Amino acid sequence: MSNIGFIGLGHMGLHMAHNLVKSTGTRVIGFDVSQPALTAFRQLGGVTADSVAEIARTCGVIITMLPKGEHVDAVMNGNSKGEHNGNNSIFANARPGTLLIDSSTIDIETSVRLAEQARLQGLDFMDAPVSGGEKGAKDGTLSFMVGADPETYNKAKPVLEMMGKNLFYVGKNGSGLAVKLVNNMLLGVCMAATGEAFNLINKLGVDAHIFHTIVSRSSGANWALEKNCPVPGLVESSPANNDYRPGFANSLMLKDLSLAQQVAMKANAPSPLGSAALSLFSMAEKSGLGNQDMSSILKLFSGDK
Hints:
alpha/beta, 14 helices
C-alpha cells in the first residue's frame, strides 16, 4: 500500500489518523493548519507534511476530515485566505489513480462537484462521512456512509476498515452525505427532545435516575438517552460527566441541521421537527453553548449556565 495522507487532524481526524498509524505498515502523513495538531500527530507516531501539495505528491490515498465544504474545496482546488492558489492543492498535484476519501460532513452539491472534477483528472473521489463521535474515532468503531461508484468503494474498504467497524455502501456520489445529514437531523431532534424531557421530569419532582431507567426500557428509548444522556452521572459514556466537553459540539450539530434543512427545502420535503431542532441549537449557540457537547442542550431548557 502506498503512503496514506490525512488532512485535518482535529478532534476526530487525529484519532482516525492514529488508528491508521497503528493498523498499517505504510507511512501515514498528516497535515493541518494547526501546529499543535501536527505536534500531537507526530507524538502518536505519524509523519507530518508542510503543505497540501506535499501530501498530494507523495500519497496514493488521501483522507480529508474538515469542518465545512469551503475547507474541502480549498484543499482540493487550492486557495490562500480566499485567493485562488491552485498550485498548493490536491487536484494540481495528485497522480492519476489517487484515492480521495472525504469524511467531512459538508453540503452535497460541493461534494458532487468535487467528485466530477476528480473524475475528469483520473482521480477516485468518494464521500464517506462518519457516525460515532470522538469516542468512535478513538476506538476505531466509526460507521462510514459511502457515496461512490462500486469500484472506488471496493478500493477504499481496506483503508476504511482500519478506522471503522461498520461500512455502509449507499450509492452514487453524494448519497453517503445524504444519509449522514438526515441521520444527524434525526439525532438533533432526539437530543433536543431528550433534554426537554429531563428538564420537565425534574420540574415534576421525579428523580432523573429513575426516569432514565424506566424510559431506557420503554417506548421513549433513543440513542441520545442511552449513550449521550444530558444529565451527569447517569450514563458512563456521556460528555455530561466531563463538564460537557464535546464529543459532538453544539456548533457542529447546528451546521449539520442547517445543511439538512437546505437539503429538505431543495427536495420539497416538509421538515418541521428538523426546523425546530435547528432553532433550538441556534439558540444554544447564541447562549454561549456552541463549544459544549450537544447534550448541553439541556441547559437551554433549565436555564443553567
